Amino acid sequence: MISVEEARRYYEGADSAHDFDHVLRVLALAERIAAEEGASLALVRTAALLHDVGRARAHAEGLDHAQLGAAIARQALAGQPQGRVDAVAGAIAAHRFRAGPEPTTLEARVLFDADKLDAIGAIGVARAFAHGGAQGQRLWARAEDVDVARWDRTGDDPQQHTPVHEFMVKLSRLRERLTTAAGRRIAEERHAFMVSFFDRLAAEVQGDL
Questions:
Q1: Where in the chain is the domain with CATH 1.10.3210.10?
Q2: pLDDT tens readout for residues 175-195
Q3: pLDDT tens digit sequence for 13-69
Q4: Rounded to the nearest 10 degrees, how much is the dihedral formed by the CA atoms of 52, 129, 191, 11?
Q5: CATH 1.20.58.1910 intervals, the chain
Q6: Is the separation of the CB atoms in 183 and 192 below 8 Å?
């Protein structure tokens, strides 16, 4: 429905955590999960390629990037079969972690899982630190000092956030939110790596290793 090169132009100037490299990683995971779960590869590919097209504008204007992305995807796919366009837009609209709607179709669930899998494991750790560096955040905070209930809300000062906060508030929870058997299986090793990494980081920062 859309080629990789056609999709690439929508991501010019994106931040390193949500750039076209992220899109390509989500695409690879989505194709892998779709093949195992029996989802429509064409729909999943298109939704993966376009899932973050609204992020930059939404961030600048205070909008929901998934809803804006769904609207942009409809424009990008104008003239194609309406049912397929609706399916792609619906999957994009439902791919956020902190906001609805919940992904209900198989293709939406595949996209949701693929996007969340790219936020955990080694690549998830790398993205958390890349984002933190861009925001001027500290590298580390003691886990016992992180008030998860407070940081689970939006609107707090991003410079007071750290990758440890991100791990405790969001990344450590993603495994539980995945919706497909294939996604949950892939998540197990990625989750274990993150737990080990942040345990090791704490030990090194505090001079225990």
A1: 1-101
A2: 999 999 999 999 999 999 999
A3: 888 889 999 999 999 999 999 999 999 999 999 999 999 999 988 888 989 999 999
A4: 10
A5: 119-209
A6: no
According to CATH, the topology of domain 119-209 is Methane Monooxygenase Hydroxylase; Chain G, domain 1 (1.20.58)
Q: Please provide the DSSP assignment of 19-56 as one string.
A: SHHHHHHHHHHHHHHHHHHT--HHHHHHHHHHTTTTHH
Length of the chain: 209
Amino acid at 46: T
Cα 11 to chain centroid, rounded: 15
Tell me the whole-structure pTM to 2 decimals. 0.94
| Arithmetic mean of pLDDT over the chain | 93
Hey, what are 31's tokens? 């194709």
**What is the C-alpha separation between 100 and 96, in angstroms, rounded?**
7
**Joined tokens for residue 19:** 């750039």
**Residue 145 banded pLDDT, cuts 50, 70, 90:** confident
CATH number of 1-101: 1.10.3210.10
C-alpha radius of gyration, the chain, whole number: 17
**What does each C-alpha distance from 181 to 38, 103, 109, 110 come to in angstroms?**
12, 15, 11, 10
Q: Is residue 54 within 8 Å of 69, Cβ to Cβ?
A: yes
